[in-house]
Amino acid sequence: MLVRVAVAAVVRAGTRNWARWASSGASSPSLSIWRRKKEMGKEGLVVAKELKRFRSDPVRLDRFIRSSVSRLLKSDLVAVLAEFQRQNQFFLCVKLYDIVRKEIWYRPDMFFYRDMLMMLARNKRVEEAKKVWGDLKTEEVLFDQHTFGDIIRAFLDNGLPSEAMDIYEEMRQSPEPPLSLPFRVILKGLIPYPELREKVKDDFLEIFPGMIIYDPPEDLFEDNKQHNDRDN
């Protein structure tokens, strides 16, 4: 009898623990639709092909979006957007971005915005990136520190230091506790911009006193400065 009671207690405890895990997992970032593997169905493939065909014809493009894109299943719409981001089809990405945000199933999501901003950074689309950033602020989306670091690095790697530093200031004001690794990611991306790097380095040493930062040789800074001067 005692054994049966003990077993029942263990089962009940296990059930409660599983329920708590399932409940917390429901809102886990790992379950975000924007992080899952995205496979296009047949209708998604057709729509993607037609969108690319009509992209230079605004009238036919808008007509096709109203007639066909609006009927796509959520999984197909997400997959088409992800594929266009991979292909750097920024014009069509912005179109689908606006459509997604109007869908009944849409919920503000950190990874949705991260993917859009990184794609726009790769294509140097500053005005579109500012609009997306304004949208995420309106929706009160909060990036974690690692995501901040990745986005800032994307802007730096694509020659947009001013925009990168604007996002860095947002990172510094974030209620999320600072982490050293994102700072190191940013500092490495700032090697071509020694003056900006010194500012971030000072912040890093103030937040993480006693930690060591690797400084590249002076001639590397000089080589990068000359390279930037030629580009400008």
Automatic annotation (TrEMBL):
The gene is LOC100807089. InterPro entries: PPR_rpt, THA8L-like, TPR-like_helical_dom_sf. The keyword rRNA-binding does not apply. Pfam families: PPR. Keywords: Repeat. This is Pentatricopeptide repeat-containing protein. NCBIfam families: PPR (TIGR00756). PPR repeats lie at residues 144-178. It comes from the Eukaryota.
